[in-house]
Amino acid sequence: MKPSLLLSYPAATLCLVLAVSAESRPFASILKQLHIFGDQTPLRDNPVNQAMPPAGEVSTGVIISDVIGKTQNIAIFSGLTRDIDPVADRLDDASKNATVLAPDNGVMRGLKHKPWEDPQDYATFGKNAYDGGDGEDRAHQNLRRFVEAHIVPQSPWKEGEKVKTLTGKEVWYESNDGKKKIQPGGIECFVLANTFARLCSGSRGCYLNLYLKIGDPHSSTSLHNSLAMSTPKFDGGDRLICETCGTQFDIPYDQAPKGCRICDDPRQYVPANGQSWTSLGREKGKHRNSFEQDKFDERIWFITTEPKLGIGERCILLQTPSGNVLWDLITYLDTPTIDFINSKGGLSAIVISHPHFYTTHLEWAKTFNCPVYTSLADQEWLSRKDPYGLRKLIKGNTEIVEGVTAVQCGGHFDGSMVLHWDGKLFIADTMMSVPSGLYHKDRPPGTSSYSFMWSYPNMIPLPPAKIHGIWKALEPFEFTATYGGFPGQNVQRPDLKQAVLESMKIFVKSGGHEDAAIFQESM
Fold first, then answer.
1. pTM for the complete prediction?
2. Domain boundaries, the chain
3. Confidence class for position 158, pLDDT limits 50, 70, 90
4. What is the DSSP letter of 296?
5. Signal sequence: where (predicted)?
6. Measured distance CA(306)–CA(308) in Å, rounded
7. Residue 342, Cβ density class (10 Å: 0-12 exposed, 13-18 middle, ≥19 buried)
8. Cβ(400)–Cβ(371) under 8 Å?
9. Nearest alpha-carbon partner for 137 in 155, 125, 153, 154
């Protein structure tokens, strides 16, 4: 591979930028291209005279882990990278570019908290926060966040270019009055060397920059403060979450009310063992989110939580030409989920179908710095104020990004929405896919594909007028696939829109409403 930016925050910090080549080159060879000025201990060889490779000379890169592993003054951080498998794999892979922001040993020793510690964990779990299996899991997740906050999956990295770390934090560097500073935070760095060498016969090259940072390990402008803690520190870590529906409230965990207003609504329920509460901080390390690509459309990803937290719905990532849109939400948000979504290009918008899936939506929107769209008609069910200005209330039909339209259908809730994109309809539970609709070949007349309920868990049907309202909202849109709110609810066939209308008529007729207006509708 080739060197990467090893940059850091406080006190005498060495930073090295490495680009990546798919071929290897002896470690000593690349070090001879360096000319290090200053009192910092040289990496290995410290030649006085530099020489660029002859034009056309073919040389290849080293593995980044080799470089940082043999650089004594960043040995502590280097050792941590080997403990995080995704990072170690990247730094060992000569086919992947990376920029490493590496604090030196003095900085690491001067940190107020160890890299695997999170003050919120102590507040939540007490002094034994890292005891036992769960404690070890928490410590490892914290350490992973710390390390990944110092890895940028890109190199070369040009001045002023905004890039994201593996945790999704946006950083860049700039020059001012002859000084280089890492932003945000204005971390001052001194350029010690700036060498470019051709590493392969093509146009790819290795940019090798060396920085030296002088500062206070506990300074509020440290890279650690401005960068490493940017991932789920969730300031919502202690906010109350209903375990049954997954809704987050603007209430501290230790001030839980008697009941959840979402679950006390007749559409939802309180379990037999009574109301129970949790928080993101308390659930950390107890769940994992899985990512499944749609087998028919590689632009679509399903994200679910195991074991489930809340209702058990899925959210769906749509990779559209106009930006990524996340349809509906799950409660649990962790670093691997953030990394996965960022690896797909981040988010341009989040759209939520109805209040049962509001979950931790402001945590998601803040994390991905994107708007989250909910229905104006359902605003009474919002359980958190929006201090970030990221929530957008919409009504009717709203284009989220080009080609992606939120459609207010009503029914289950007055503001219940579906999402239309590229001949596909993402329906949540505005209407529910039913088992008889999954296999449709040679099915007899009267076989339904969808159900329409005011309450699904309590099996209270929608009245005919509400079902007719859903049809009128859908009528202008063409679709041959629907994606429900839960795993296994994907339905695809050419006559699917007709199947929706037929299902509405079957549902209404079975309730004894044979004169309902829906029977006047046709394709």
1. 0.59
2. 13-230, 239-283, 288-520
3. confident
4. S
5. 1-22
6. 5
7. buried
8. no
9. 125
